[in-house]
Amino acid sequence: MMGDCNGQDKRDFTSSELGTKEYWDEVYKLELENYNESKDIGEIWFGENCQASVIRWIKNCEKIKKDSAIVDLGCGNGALLIELARQGFSCLTGFDYSENAITFAKTISAEENFNNIIFEVGDILNEESCLAFNQKYQVCHDKGTYDAISLMSDNFKPLQMSYIKVVKKILNEGGFFIITSCNWTKDQLLEQFSNDFHFNEVIPTSTFQFGGSTGSKYTTLVLIK
């Protein structure tokens, strides 16, 4: 767990290549090549069930309208935004620091005729890097981006603070921050974000059993600014 009174990083994992831009550039280069050959959109991060649960929650939330502004923080192949567009949501933005990911997302959305989705190259740790950071959103969604940032460096605290600064900047007062993580537990996430967001609810996830104990592969929280 991290975020004690001395602000020290107490992660129980270390940095890895999954936190590097080079890794994700290569992943999305290969996935775009595969898509051009077979029309396979590639991996949905954390699986289709996770994505479906988040979309179902957004659809059922009375405070989120079909024209509410929604941004995907590290959109990858754009699968979540494309599915939201299928469900009738019309004000959708995604950004990713991998140019290959954005090229891939634009390619898929164009072939699906969802040309109203805005995709931009941008780094959430640099609020000057794209126009998306000058807008306000009712929903900020993150599925794996905070995890990747936490793997960038063993000195995570400055990265965490930069991330939180941008999310606070672009999210409406009373807006929803939906975050899915496989690196951090519910309690760890709440500790890290409690100064700027309050807890709304957990979006249920699929569980597994091992040795008589029940667990989950990831955690999805809804927080409110």
From TrEMBL:
Q: What is its main location?
A: cytoplasm
Give a yes or no for keyword S-adenosyl-L-methionine in this entry: yes
Q: Which GO terms describe its molecular function?
A: protein-lysine N-methyltransferase activity
Show the InterPro entries listed in the entry.
Efm4/METTL10, Methyltranfer_dom, SAM-dependent_MTases_sf
UniProt EC number: 2.1.1.-
Which parts of the sequence belong to the Methyltransferase domain?
65-201
Identify the keywords attached in UniProt to this record, alphabetized: Cytoplasm, Methyltransferase, S-adenosyl-L-methionine, Transferase
Instruction: Identify its protein family.
Output: Belongs to the class I-like SAM-binding methyltransferase superfamily. EFM4 family.
What is the protein's given name?
Protein-lysine N-methyltransferase SPHA_56545
UniProt organism field: Acanthosepion pharaonis
